[in-house]
Amino acid sequence: MGKLATLTLLGASLAFLGQRFSAFRERMNASREVEPVELQHCHLIEKLENGSEDIDILPTGLAFISTGLKYPGMPDFAPDEPGRIFLMDLNEPAPKAQALKISDGFDTELFNPHGISTFINKEGTVYLYVVNHPHMESTVEIFKFEEQQRSLVHLKTIKHELLKSLNDIVVVGPEQFYATRDHYFTNFFLALLEMFLDPHWTYVVFYSPSEVKVVAKGFGSANGITVSRDQKYIYVADVTDKNIHVMEKQENWDLTQLKVIQLETLVDNLTVDPATGDILAGCHPNVLKLLNYDPKDPPGSEVLRIQNVLSDKPTVSTVYANNGSVLQGSSVASTYHGKILIGTVFHKALYCVL
């Protein structure tokens, strides 16, 4: 009887693991090959060789780009180089990327920038908020942008017990922001187990100097986050569930889910087209190619546009798709006056005139 019980338990365990493995491969789009959709008038941006994970473009056309992300499980072509913030002026006929200087007193050797977001106060001062991972922990760094000097002045480091395993950030007021937690466990191996078992323990947190709280939870892996043009709605990408959550912002900063836009690709960072209000999503057609990097069969890139976001049937179209021959591991896309920047987790960055 004991042997029978053992065999039964073993069989059930193997069946469970087989089911979870099959579900994991399906979530990761393990068998998907991207259909190419190329743009004209494109070129790779010089100096951006080690990622361009997130991009935020000011109304003036100045684009901030975070580079050099060190992220567990992701390729890293420059492991000994710290991260940086680059700037591009998209008003120039041939814009170039320039690394911004950072003020003394901030440890640039430990700079590991992830998601970024800008905020402009009533006086017109620009602040850049950066998710940072020094020693693979999570902080939010606040910088003031000095345009004439092309530099960043570090003002503050924010830490909190709810601000763990951060991915992306969107600023909605002075020292007020929403941020996503993309995995619950901070230990790398436990995070891998979490990805495999898919318990949906990640969340969105709201931060202000007077209050920090979880405002939305139950995500497979909460990733990119941004805000609508009218500041009424927050859009959250759940990368492993392959969808975008449309959430209404309440007066107390809580978020109420209105709808979920289901997609067929793994959604990373989100931006809003300032001209149309459409969502632009940097996506991963096949995440297993990211996790198991092979330069002979690299991960592809994909950018989607979601129109009529609040309607019953939003329109989803492919702006750009490449099999990795040009751009690998796209994470974000952002537009300005008929131009688009497409960034990646660890690879290069693409500039196109639409």
TrEMBL record:
<dbReference type="InterPro" id="IPR002640">
    <property type="entry name" value="Arylesterase"/>
</dbReference>
<keyword id="KW-0378">Hydrolase</keyword>
<feature type="active site" description="Proton acceptor">
    <location>
        <position position="114"/>
    </location>
</feature>
<feature type="signal peptide">
    <location>
        <begin position="1"/>
        <end position="15"/>
    </location>
</feature>
<comment type="similarity">
    <text>Belongs to the paraoxonase family.</text>
</comment>
<keyword id="KW-0325">Glycoprotein</keyword>
<feature type="disulfide bond" description="In form B">
    <location>
        <begin position="42"/>
        <end position="352"/>
    </location>
</feature>
<feature type="binding site">
    <location>
        <position position="268"/>
    </location>
    <ligand>
        <name>Ca(2+) 1</name>
    </ligand>
</feature>
<keyword id="KW-0732">Signal</keyword>
<keyword id="KW-1015">Disulfide bond</keyword>
<feature type="binding site">
    <location>
        <position position="223"/>
    </location>
    <ligand>
        <name>Ca(2+) 1</name>
    </ligand>
</feature>
<keyword id="KW-0106">Calcium</keyword>
<dbReference type="GO" id="GO:0009636">
    <property type="term" value="P:response to toxic substance"/>
</dbReference>
<dbReference type="InterPro" id="IPR011042">
    <property type="entry name" value="6-blade_b-propeller_TolB-like"/>
</dbReference>
<dbReference type="GO" id="GO:0005615">
    <property type="term" value="C:extracellular space"/>
</dbReference>
<feature type="binding site">
    <location>
        <position position="168"/>
    </location>
    <ligand>
        <name>Ca(2+) 1</name>
    </ligand>
</feature>
<feature type="binding site">
    <location>
        <position position="269"/>
    </location>
    <ligand>
        <name>Ca(2+) 1</name>
    </ligand>
</feature>
<dbReference type="GO" id="GO:0051649">
    <property type="term" value="P:establishment of localization in cell"/>
</dbReference>
<dbReference type="GO" id="GO:0102007">
    <property type="term" value="F:acyl-L-homoserine-lactone lactonohydrolase activity"/>
</dbReference>
<dbReference type="GO" id="GO:2001038">
    <property type="term" value="P:regulation of cellular response to drug"/>
</dbReference>
<dbReference type="GO" id="GO:0046872">
    <property type="term" value="F:metal ion binding"/>
</dbReference>
<dbReference type="GO" id="GO:0032929">
    <property type="term" value="P:negative regulation of superoxide anion generation"/>
</dbReference>
<feature type="glycosylation site" description="N-linked (GlcNAc...) asparagine">
    <location>
        <position position="323"/>
    </location>
</feature>
<dbReference type="GO" id="GO:0003096">
    <property type="term" value="P:renal sodium ion transport"/>
</dbReference>
<feature type="binding site">
    <location>
        <position position="116"/>
    </location>
    <ligand>
        <name>Ca(2+) 1</name>
    </ligand>
</feature>
<feature type="binding site">
    <location>
        <position position="167"/>
    </location>
    <ligand>
        <name>Ca(2+) 1</name>
    </ligand>
</feature>
<dbReference type="GO" id="GO:0042803">
    <property type="term" value="F:protein homodimerization activity"/>
</dbReference>
<dbReference type="InterPro" id="IPR051288">
    <property type="entry name" value="Serum_paraoxonase/arylesterase"/>
</dbReference>
<protein>
    <recommendedName>
        <fullName>Paraoxonase</fullName>
        <ecNumber>3.1.1.2</ecNumber>
    </recommendedName>
</protein>
<keyword id="KW-0479">Metal-binding</keyword>
<dbReference type="InterPro" id="IPR008364">
    <property type="entry name" value="Paraoxonase2"/>
</dbReference>
<dbReference type="GO" id="GO:0046395">
    <property type="term" value="P:carboxylic acid catabolic process"/>
</dbReference>
<dbReference type="GO" id="GO:0004064">
    <property type="term" value="F:arylesterase activity"/>
</dbReference>
<dbReference type="Pfam" id="PF01731">
    <property type="entry name" value="Arylesterase"/>
</dbReference>
<feature type="binding site">
    <location>
        <position position="53"/>
    </location>
    <ligand>
        <name>Ca(2+) 1</name>
    </ligand>
</feature>
<feature type="binding site">
    <location>
        <position position="54"/>
    </location>
    <ligand>
        <name>Ca(2+) 2</name>
    </ligand>
</feature>
<feature type="glycosylation site" description="N-linked (GlcNAc...) asparagine">
    <location>
        <position position="269"/>
    </location>
</feature>
<dbReference type="GO" id="GO:1901335">
    <property type="term" value="P:lactone catabolic process"/>
</dbReference>
